[in-house]
Sequence to fold (896 residues):
Amino acid sequence: MDLTLKIWRQASAGEKGKFVDYQVQNISTDASFLEMLDVLNERLVREGEDPVAFDHDCREGICGACSLYINGRPHGPDKGITTCQMHMRRFKDGETIVIEPWRAKPFPVIKDLMVDRTAFDEIIQAGGYVSINTGGVPDANAIPIPKRDADTAMDAAACIGCGACVAACKNASAMLFVSAKVSQFAVLPQGKIEARERVQNMVAKMDELGFGNCTNTYACEAECPKEISVSHIARMNREYLSAKLVSQKE
Amino acid sequence: MVKLDAKIPQGPLAEKWTNYKAHQNLVNPSNKRRLDIIVVGTGLAGASAAASFGEMGFNVKVFGIHDSPRRAHSIAAQGGINAAKNYPNDGDSVYRLFYDTIKGGDYRAREANVYRLAEVSNNIIDQCVAQGVPFAREYGGLLDNRSFGGAQVSRTFYARGQTGQQLLLGAYSALSKEIKKGSVKMFTRREMLELVVIEGRARGIIVRDLISGKIERHSAHAVVLATGGYGNVFFLSTNAMASNGSAVWKVFKKGAFFGNPSFTQIHPTCIPVHGDYQSKLTLMSESLRNDGRIWVPKHKEDAEKIRKGELKPTQIPEDRRDYYLERRYPAFGNLVPRDVASRAAKERCDAGFGVGSTGLAVYLDFEDAIKRLGKHVIEARYGNLFQMYEKIVDENPYETPMMIYPAVHYTMGGIWVDYELQTTIPGLFAAGEANFSDHGANRLGASALMQGLSDGYFVLPYTIQNYLADQIRVPRFETNLPEFEQAEKEARERIDKLLAVNGAETVDTFHRKLGLIMWDLVGMGRKKEELEKAITMIQELRKEFWSNVKVPGKNEMVNPELEKAIRVADYLELGELMARDALEREESCGGHFREEYQTEEGEALRDDKNFTFVSAWEYTGEDKEPKLNKEPLVFEFIEVKQRNYK
Fold:
């Protein structure tokens, strides 16, 4: 298939970016979206032009590195997948495809389609862990955990930290990302011990880094490649409220 | 030949690690603060080691090539992690996990290392559960297990099809905790270019900042390499795009020996190759072999019709199917080890029974399992894998069998280390897939996660202290020492040289060519003449690369083409060493199959008399042949036998 690509080009964070049109020919419908970009880049290199920079690594939907708006939607038009899992059979011959980096203030553009998502690491560092050291822990079966809770924790823990939720949100809110981690630990006995401090510290860090508020549009859930439910946001709000109330009493 | 000392502790097998820990040197808390450790890599081994060192009180600097430590390729491991918990009460024990691992590795691993691995496997599960890793559970609230290839017990713990992700996020959370505390400093988007050796000891690294191109110097009292495997030498593999062998290759050229470089794992269940634009291959977890049955048509005419698209697999009746693994290996059936399953698939396809448009595929069929257990059970067990398959192949595996074919997945070979995971360069340690240590000639499924975390959480925190104990009076190193100057100069010159070639061909073109040579001549079946041919071809390709590669842009910018060029330049040397090692080892063992050495039934034929050793290759200089050193493998506690899965 032949396609027209409108790609966001930006030399560095400090410089102005713009859309540049590229034509690609004879793309196999079995190729992945990123393989299509590889084909373009290979040609640009041969022609002595600067290839398009984009983040990617595992190319099987789990590392969370890839991060593109395709025709205005994070990770493209399909539900429940990342950009690297998008295949060209999903597009029509002759189609024009618009490709942009994540657009959110806390994720500044590094170059072209690459953005800086360090903010997510900082939020995790604010409390996304159980404060135990290596060794000296009880036997793994010492504390039985209801299967339902373990499954809920796993649903939340499936987050790959790609940032599509932030990119999808008109407020650039990171609530789905933060709540997935808060929720995972809130339902597990191992995480309960620090639950109160965790939710407060992570939310404070999220606000400090400039992520916006949640106004319940659920765009995050709709675009999340791991289909993480907004019910985790509800759980986080409950956790946050009760943590605040209890800390005020104390 | 150098006499290699593996430093295996005295005493009976089951007491070695206990004895080691009882007698090793320790560093007291106030001295730990004065000692710096560099960890390169943030996968399971790197993140767990760095977090543990930080908790102990050392100053730790961690380097990773990604934008976040959470993206290291351990994240993509699907199936599970082994441990000898024996929760299912099916006869498992530390000894049995040890034995299965040694046997699975075709008796080419060290007894003492493997026993220690089995011994600490249980601690790993405890640790991960305490971190909040959401392993799969039974209705009673206890942990669930499943079975994997090469074992007759169910000892694999899992978190849906995302076990690697959950374990890595556990290690990442521990690392994040230490970063917050200030004991660990994280350097993201940095690629190691050189190791700095001062008076024979590893004292630092040179890295490139992948955003600015700035070359940086970092010093430490010890360096840990946890940079993963080098399977991407084949171009197409299940490894991530950025996974690379450059760090291990750099330390090899600085004097660290390379153990068993030719031992490569070709994983039996991957989505087959389909086009020349393809950038990587996708693994379908081995756990699928718990319920899926592997088959090809029994008759060539059916296979031909399938290849032409005239017949569908669902139209082939039961009596015209050949479930060749169940036929050849009734005791283990579809759960034979990976090397055996891969070779059997190749054998059927080479004989003309392969399916798919290329004829290089076999079926993995869930029809029976769906009939037996119901679709919902299969969906709960493998839903995400089925979805992944459907996205790539555009076929629904609930309705038609999956097509699979072997692909490069893991390298058992790696930097040679002793029992302490120390390389032949004092102060340089290697952990996880980057070292050669525990899997012999073939790794069992769900054992990579076990080894990465064992090295990082439970081995290095002890053994590195034994080294650092006599370093407490060594002050911090300044990075303006001549050794740093020199190492940086070497790194810069190499980059300048790559940029200066300004030829006509892209880096990927060379990488693809190298990959084809490796796959065709140093792949699943190896022959003397073909290996010799591979060495010549790689040498020629290397020359062509250095005279005709085109690397655009400059160093001082985001330059993914330059990153690739640096890596491919190293692969063009590493590939040759792999071929040399395969040529030298005139026997078949595990994943290393020399066509000349096989039983009448086509099984790998070892030569224990002449090859019960680890090949430890030594660098001797640019364009000089590397030297082979041998570490004899001594089996004191188990009887070495012909592997039998029948």
Q: What stands out?
A: The radius of gyration of chain A is 20 Å. The beta strands of chain A are 3-9, 18-24, 68-70, 73-74, 96-101, 109-111, 114-115. The longest helix of chain A spans residues 231-249. The domain at 118-249 of chain A is CATH 1.10.1060.10 (Fumarate Reductase Iron-sulfur Protein; Chain B, domain 2).
